[in-house]
Design goal:
The protein is α/β, with parallel strands linked by helices and 445 residues long. It has 3 domains: 116 residues, 3-Layer(aba) Sandwich (Rossmann fold), CATH 3.40.50; 166 residues, 3-Layer(aba) Sandwich (Rossmann fold); 150 residues, 3-Layer(aba) Sandwich (Rossmann fold), CATH 3.40.50.261. The chain is built from 15 helices and 18 strands. The strands form 3 sheets. The protein has a 7-stranded mixed beta sheet, with helices on both faces. Helix 6 links the parallel strand 10 and strand 11. Helix 9 crosses helix 15 and helix 12 runs parallel beside helix 13. It is elongated and about 80 Å long. The N terminus is likely disordered.
């Protein structure tokens, strides 16, 4: 059973009454004012607190309702007094954006739930709960969906949110745990584990001090929810840098991390791009029934490159096409150069022939996933995008596309991504996401 003994974090995630410290009507561009106005627009019961602003409450004493969550958009100089006031008024949780150079929060850990310090905040699209330190014109807000993201760096929210938006995928919850003085990834994971709306969980962590508990939760969730982890600080140089970023100290080596992750079903990302790639493909509801991949394209060289990547993969293999599949491909594409795998459709292939070859491959029992190279060519029109979207909606098998070029290919990629089709600029990325997808269905206990 998951541990339910931790202090409740519901005041952080489900506050009924919110107080924002640091609101100043004289500084409408300030963080406190921006967060206050955003929460008010979202329909939350929110109160501004600032003893130096007549239009704000001077203190929590002036607020008639019990406050569940206090947002401390203040400098570290005023931190101790503000948290002390929140504790005395039995506020459930506080968010601390500033750093805490004097460790004043250390004395409050057992008295109040703390997100931070040095955090970007958190965001729940379903309830419009948005305490992020960055405005919408800088950081896009995804719609509500099934992807949860827990990070120890607010910066990673930018590419992550934009990737979800570009792929028409939604977010269930985002939280930046910052320096984890109190609320950690474990608290949030235990909440998300009981949230039916969160199906894929992305993690960026710099310190795994609660690694054993993390892996226990992951093992229990294995088969129900996918977890993708990017771990910062697995080399000496990066560990030194961590101390100046979040103060984290990591002792987890890459080999240990991979070994334990394999046992409990966590999928490891090597960098921020893979964190996005793996998370988004796992949220697309396509499952791999095996490890066999077929490669299709209009040039033999690109197919060979992808075939090399697949053949050297620790978990994937090239599908050996059946005679029936070869015959169907040859009948559908008169100019076909090679009907083995990779399939060389030739530069003369037209839109109908190309899409028909994709359909044939996805129907074949010996093929678990299809990787195609798509490029602008004389006989392939932009209508192929609509055809591929239709095929993708019909099939249960994964279809990934490698799309290269800087002209019309860009608009093609945008349309395909918005339809939920995984599109990548290189065969390396396409093969890596198929590896992640295969691993997500191969549960090891």
């Amino acid at each position: 059973m998951l541990n339910s003994n931790n202090k409740d974090i519901r005041p952080l995630l489900h506050p009924e009454v919110i107080a924002v410290f640091g609101v100043s009507h004289d500084r409408p561009e300030g963080a406190g004012m921006a967060i206050y106005e955003r929460l008010k627009r979202g329909g939350h019961k929110v109160h501004p607190v600032n003893p130096e602003d007549r239009r704000c409450h001077p203190s929590l004493d002036d607020i008639p309702s019990q406050v569940d969550l206090a947002i401390l958009a203040i400098s570290s100089d005023h931190l101790k007094a503000a948290v002390n006031e929140c504790v005395s008024h039995e506020v459930g949780a506080v968010i601390v954006y500033s750093k805490d150079p004097e460790d004043v929060l250390e004395g409050f850990k057992d008295k109040i739930r703390i997100l931070g310090p040095n955090t970007l905040g958190h965001f729940r699209p379903d309830t419009t709960l948005d305490t992020l330190l960055v405005d919408e014109d800088v950081l896009v807000r995804p719609d509500h969906g099934k992807v949860a993201f827990i990070s120890q760096s607010g910066f990673l929210a930018l590419p992550f949110f934009e990737a979800l938006e570009a792929r028409s995928l939604g977010l269930s919850i985002f939280a930046d745990v910052g320096e984890k003085r109190d609320i950690s990834e474990i608290d949030l994971l235990e909440y998300i584990s009981r949230d039916d709306g969160s199906e894929v969980i992305a993690l960026y962590l710099e310190d795994l001090s609660s690694g054993r508990k993390l892996f226990e939760i992951a093992k229990e969730l294995n088969g129900r929810k996918n977890i993708v982890l990017l771990k910062g600080g697995t080399t000496k140089g990066s560990k030194d840098a961590l101390k100046s970023h979040t103060g984290a100290i990591s002792s987890t080596s890459r080999s240990v991390l991979y070994g334990v992750a394999e046992q409990c079903g966590i999928i490891i990302a090597e960098d921020e791009t893979e964190l996005v790639d793996f998370t988004t493909i796992l949220a697309m509801d396509k499952k791999m029934g095996g490890d066999k991949v077929a490669v299709l394209g209009t040039t033999g060289s690109m197919g060979i490159i992808a075939a090399d990547k697949i053949s050297s993969s620790p978990v994937l293999d090239l599908s050996k096409l059946s005679e029936r599949t070869k015959e169907e491909l040859e009948a559908a594409v008169p100019h076909i150069e090679f009907s083995g795998n990779p399939v060389d459709l030739s530069p003369l292939v037209n839109t109908f022939e190309f899409t028909e070859s994709v359909r044939i491959s996805l129907r074949a029992d010996e093929i678990s996933a299809v990787l195609i190279f798509l490029s602008v060519s004389p006989n392939v029109s932009q209508s192929i995008v609509d055809e591929l979207i239709h095929i993708f909606e019909e099939t249960d098998k994964p279809l990934v596309i490698v799309l290269q070029g800087e002209t019309s290919s860009v608009s093609w990629a945008g349309r395909l991504k918005r339809a939920g089709i995984p599109v990548y600029p290189s065969s390396s990325r396409a093969v890596r996401v198929l590896e992640a997808l295969y691993r997500s269905g191969r549960h090891v206990f």
